């Protein structure tokens, strides 16, 4: 891992699997690249977080790791709703779809959605997370 000059303020982890969220949170925290980690158990909770106003500002996490298959609102439904948000609610957010899906149609569909920056297979590893941060946030190094 390379030393970082500027940490990401917030990463939003969106996954209904408690074990996956625990593992992903641990990896993100141990990387030292992030100040705050927010977890959502489905797309609906993630959307509610993005719509929040704290001190008259939306939270705007820099990075979202998004699962596909979740109850209440899955990753695809989240992306449809996300596209409808005001620009101020989604400014400069990198979204990586993180899935166990082996269906090539899922990856193809993700790559066709302009707001999704990458599609990767679970599990998230320290090496993979580091590579994602280095790729999408090169100015932080």
Short overview:
The protein has 141 residues and is of the alpha/beta class.
Mean pLDDT: 94
Total strand segments:
5
| Unreliable spans | none
Largest sheet: 5 strands, parallel
Give the SSE order as H and E letters: EHEHEHEHEH
How many DSSP helices? 5
Q: Rg, please?
A: 14 Å
Q: Distance between the terminal alpha carbons, to the nearest Å?
A: 11 Å
Amount of beta strand: 15-25%
The assigned structural class equals alpha/beta
Which strand order spans the largest sheet, edge to edge or round the barrel?
A: 2-1-3-4-5
- Helix % is 25-40%
Q: Give the overall form.
A: globular
Attribute tags:
five-stranded parallel beta sheet, alpha/beta, 141 residues
Secondary structure topology:
Elements: E1 8-14, H1 18-31, E2 34-40, H2 43-51, E3 63-66, H3 75-83, E4 94-99, H4 104-112, E5 116-121, H5 126-136
Helix pairs in contact: 2-3
Structure, explained:
This protein has 141 residues and is of the alpha/beta class. It has five helices and five strands; from the N terminus they run βαβαβαβαβα. The protein has helices at residues 18-31, 43-51, 75-83, 104-112, 126-136; strands at 8-14, 34-40, 63-66, 94-99, 116-121. It has a five-stranded parallel beta sheet with strand order 2-1-3-4-5. β1 (8-14), α1 (18-31) and β2 (34-40) form a beta-alpha-beta unit. α2 (43-51) packs parallel to α3 (75-83). The radius of gyration is 14 Å and the shape is globular.
């Amino acid at each position: 891992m390379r030393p970082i000059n500027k940490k990401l303020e917030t990463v939003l982890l969106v996954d209904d699997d408690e074990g996956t969220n625990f593992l992903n949170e641990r990896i993100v925290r141990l990387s030292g690249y992030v100040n705050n980690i927010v977890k959502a158990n489905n797309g609906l909770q993630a959307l509610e977080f993005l719509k929040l106003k704290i001190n008259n500002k939306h939270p705007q996490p820099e990075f979202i790791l998004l699962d596909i298959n979740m109850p209440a609102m899955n990753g695809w439904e989240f992306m449809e709703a996300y596209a409808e948000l005001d620009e101020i609610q989604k400014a400069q957010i990198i979204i990586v779809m993180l899935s166990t899906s082996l269906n090539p149609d899922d990856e193809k569909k993700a790559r066709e959605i302009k707001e999704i920056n990458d599609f990767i297979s679970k599990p998230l590893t320290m090496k993979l997370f580091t590579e994602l941060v280095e790729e999408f946030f090169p100015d932080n190094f």
